[in-house]
Structure formats: C-alpha cells, structure tokens
UniProtKB/TrEMBL annotation:
Family: Belongs to the ABC transporter superfamily.
Bilayer topology: Multi-pass membrane protein
A molecular function GO annotation: ABC-type transporter activity
The protein's name in its UniProt record: ATP-binding protein of ABC transporter
Transmembrane region(s): 21-45, 80-109, 158-178, 184-204, 276-303
Naturally occurring in which organism (per UniProt): Sinorhizobium fredii (strain NBRC 101917 / NGR234)
Keyword Nucleotidyltransferase among UniProt keywords: no
Sequence ranges assigned to domain ABC transmembrane type-1 in this UniProt record: 25-321
Keyword Glycosyltransferase applies: no
Alphabetical list of PROSITE patterns matching this protein: ABC_TM1F, ABC_TRANSPORTER_1, ABC_TRANSPORTER_2
Amino acid sequence: MLRFLMPGLELLRNALGRQVRLLPLVVILGLASAALEGAGIGLIIPMLGIIAGNEDAAGLSGISAAFQQVGAGLDQSDRLLVIAAAVLALIILKNVLAFANTVLTTFIYGKASHSIRSALSDQLLRIGYPFFLQQNPGRLLNIISNESWRASDAIQTVLAAIVHGSATIILLACLLLLSWQMTLFVALGLVLVQIVHAVLSATLKAPSRNVTSFNSDLAARMLHLVHAGRLIRVFGQESREKTAFDAASHSVRHAGFVLQTRQGALPPLTEVLHSALFLAAVVSAWFAGVSFPVIVAFVVLLYRLQPHVRALQMSWSQIQGWSGSLEEVRWLLDSSDKPKPPSGSKPVKGLHSGIEFDRVTFRYPGSDARPVVLRSTTFEIASGRSTALIGRSGAGKTTIVNLLCRFVEPDEGRILIDGVPLDQIDPAQWRRQIAVASQDLELVDGSIHENITYGQEATVAEVVRAAKLAEAHGFIEKLPQGYETVVGYRGASLSAGQRQRIALARALVRDPAILILDEATNAVDGLSEAAIVETLKLRAGRRTTIVISHHRNTISFCDDVVVLGSGRVKSQTRLAELASLSMDQLYEHEAPLESQS
Ligand SMILES: Nc1ncnc2c1ncn2[C@@H]1O[C@H](COP(=O)(O)OP(=O)(O)OP(=O)(O)O)[C@@H](O)[C@H]1O
C-alpha cells in the first residue's frame, strides 16, 4: 500500500542506507522541540490570567488548570516575570533543538544524495555493455544530471516531513489536552482537507512523467549540439537544429508549467481550507462557552500547527510531483531488467595455443527484426601470430572484437581460449590480457602521459618507449608541454593521426598478450604507418596481434588472414599465399573450409 502511495519509497530507503538509524533521533528532536513549543504556548494561559486580572482556575480543567497554577505562590509582578522568563527559555531551547535537527537532517540528506549518485555511477560501470547499445544517451544523461538531484530533494522532503509530522502530533496532543471537543472538530476537518489534497496531488503524477520524458529529449538534443558541432556547421543546419532544440525546450517549459501550476494551486487552496476550519473551531468554542485564556492558547496552538500541517501536505504533493524522477532513478538502479555483466571465474594468464570461434552466431540486441551479423562463424587465431581480419564494411569485424572483449555474447556457438569456453573465464582477468587500439576508443580529458598510462601503471621510460613504438614520441616532444600537454575533451586539441598514435601507445604500454588494432592507424600518414608496421613485426612470434584494416599496407606484416563476408568466414589462410592479391581481390577470396590451412 505504501509503495503504491509513495513511488520510490524503496529507492529512498536504499538511499538512506545506514542513515536510517538516525531517523528516530530526527523524530525525537522534532517531538521535543514541538513539546517545548506547546509548553511555551500553554504558559500563555496564566500570563493572560494575570494581565486580565482573572486568576481563577474555575472553568479550566486538565492541563489548562495545571498551567493556571504555575507560580501560584508568587506575587503578581514576580509571577508574570518568572512566567515570561520561562516562556523565553522554552523558546530558546526549542530553537536550539530545531537547529540541531536541521544539522542532522542536512547531514542525512547529504549522505543519501551522495549514495544515490554513487549507486548510479556504480550501476553504469557494472551493467552489461549491450545496455548502452540500446539506450538513448539523452535519457541516461538526464537521469544522472537532473533526476538524481530531484530524487535527493525527495529525501530532504521526506526528512522535513518527519520533523513536521512530529510537530503536528505534539501540537495536536497539546490541543487535545486543552479541549478534546475542539480538537476532534479540528482533526476531522484536517482529515477532510487531507483527502481533498491527496486527490489533487494524485493528478501530478502524469505531468511529472511528461516533464521527465521531455527532459530526456532535451538532454539528447544538448548532447547532439555538443557532439555534432562540426557536422551541423558544414551542412549549414544551424537553423534546423535551433528549431528542433527550441521545440524540445518548449516542450519541457510547457510540461513544467502544467506541473508547477497544478502544484502551485495546492498551497493557497489548503491555506483557505485550513483558515476556514480553524475559524469555525474558534467560533464554535466561543458558542460552547470555552474560557477566554483557553481559546487564546488554542488559537495560538492552531496558528503554530497550521504551517506544519501545510508543510506536511506540500511534502506529499512535492513527492507526487517528483514521481517521474523517482521512477527514472529507480529504473536505472534496478538490475533485474538490465543486461548482466559477463560472468566466469576460471583464471587466465596469457594465450598459449590460440582463440577459436566455433560456429558463432550473433545478432545485436534490439528488435526481433535485427539482422544476423555473424552466422555460424568458425575460424582460429593462433597464439604468437598476427592475424588480419578483413572484409567489406559491415562484414562484422568490429563485432568480432566486441565478442572477444565480451562486450556482447554469442547467441549460438562458443569462443574458446586455449580450449576453454570464454564465458567460463574471469572477464576482468581476460580483459587484462587484451589491449585494443581502435578508431572508436577516445582519449580521456587529461595529459598525454595520463592517456598513455590509462589502465596501466608505467614508468616515464616505459611511456616514452611505447610512444616511440607508436611513432608518437616525435610530435609529443615538439609540444611545449611535452608529455604533460592536456589533450582536451576526447583529445580535441590533437589531430586525428596524433590521437591514434597516442591510443596505440596506450595499447602498447600494456605489452598485452593479445593486441587488437581496429582501424587503429587509418588516419596516420604513410611514413608513420610504415614505421608502426615495423614495430608490430617485432611482436611477431612473441605475442598475438589481430589487425583490422581496409589498407593493404597495414595488414602486410600479418601471418594469417581471415576474410569475412555475408556474416560468415569466406576464407582463412596464410597471407603469404595471397600476397599477390589486392584488397578488393582479398575481399572476394573464397576457400572452402577443408582447403583452408
Ligand atoms: N550497436 C549495434 N546495434 C545494431 N547493429 C549493429 C551495431 N553495431 C554494428 N551493427 C551492425 O552489425 C554489422 C557489422 O558491424 P561491424 O561494425 O562489426 O562491421 P565492420 O566489419 O567492423 O565494418 P567497418 O569496416 O565499416 O568498420 C553491421 O551491419 C552493423 O549495421
């Protein structure tokens, strides 16, 4: 029931984590400060009695009569001063406790919001890679940058609601002690107001989901403007992009306006209803003959109660208004409907005999109509040799790299590493055996040194050696800051060829058992590429290298070649046997499996 009433309750519970233990303290501090406030207000009764010259306890009962007796032995002026001092002391103490509660709730809020952000980053790092192939990056960006903050705000609102709820309970108890009849009247009225409020709050859920959904679209547009800056300018699409962006922004504005106006109607409405209720309570008390000091104390208590009740109701409507955000954050944190990360526990160290693709069939996750990329594909990559993986664009070469790195898993068939199925091998250990240099793998926003050592501790000498092997040392040395040059977002301050050479150095510094080059040098000039090919030859016989390229020169040093086409292996042989063939002829080369050496 509670889960139905409060979307994201489970999320809030998880975010609070160990801080849940502090919630009783929040309640106790809230109750204590409200009790002190109630006592202070109760002391108004004898003060008014003294001021009005009416110290008779007749007509008073229960707590009112008890308050009337405070300082009974003292003379008039001393008694007034003592009671006034007591009221001031109670007010000071109440505010000290209220401040302590603010510090405590701020502490809990900070911890809980950190825990939400940390859980989101943890989930994004752990989740199976196919998730990123299917999801809209704008949605993910929106959850991390917007919705997570709203989820944090919801926690703050819940904490504030606990404090206001405690105050409401105590002040209602004080009212009850003053006059149970008037309190019953007020309590029933408050229940009716709450029902009206809850019905209206429930209408906030749909606009809240709209805001979330339009925010995701807007975040996607923002990402597009940032990433496609060159494309947009080259094709002169500024005005079209502006129109599309403004439309997305307008949708967010409109959805936000609908949500906020509905939310905004609730406070004035409840204030009017509360005022009418409280006035009705006071008028009825007068007709019922309740004494003047009690009515005044009751009115002051009601006056103090009203903001707490209103804050409670506002908390309720705010949480309804954030239900879309809470649902989004909860969706991302929920692992049950997300691709699992690769599993396996068998240890692996190096590559001894080789890699075997055994009748591997694969389609990318998505709709049922997705095409088969690899169809019962069988080939071998021998250890210590260099294998060229070639085929026309879209043949499935990068997909093979994705399968080898276990970003995706085969639908059918097996990949064997030295005879052991890859899905039984510890994925983290396996990835440590591999280094990939690819046109798709970006540089990180840091120095050249940080980029080369990303994922691998290395001495300065090792970094320089890797940079020399990748033909990068020459241009790095000429930069004013050398290896400390900051490359900018995705290496924006470097040329494409320079970026590729740094990415290659990053792969080489690992000195991996298996080096995968996926179009890793296609932007490098011919001379540099020739030198890189010489470097790669040095690995021959020692380490395994897989080279994907459309350039004949780049694969020239390879021992073996696997030709892919139409989702299958067309040929696997020694490259030397096809030395006379051009790249186009290689793409068309077919050899029945049994004749492949
Ligand atoms: N994330 C993805 N989701 C769905 N289909 C994909 C995805 N990535 C690639 N494909 C499809 O898989 C097929 C093989 O793509 P892949 O990138 O492996 O080809 P490739 O041989 O490396 O091509 P190229 O030489 O152009 O880099 C293509 O038809 C492509 O459309």
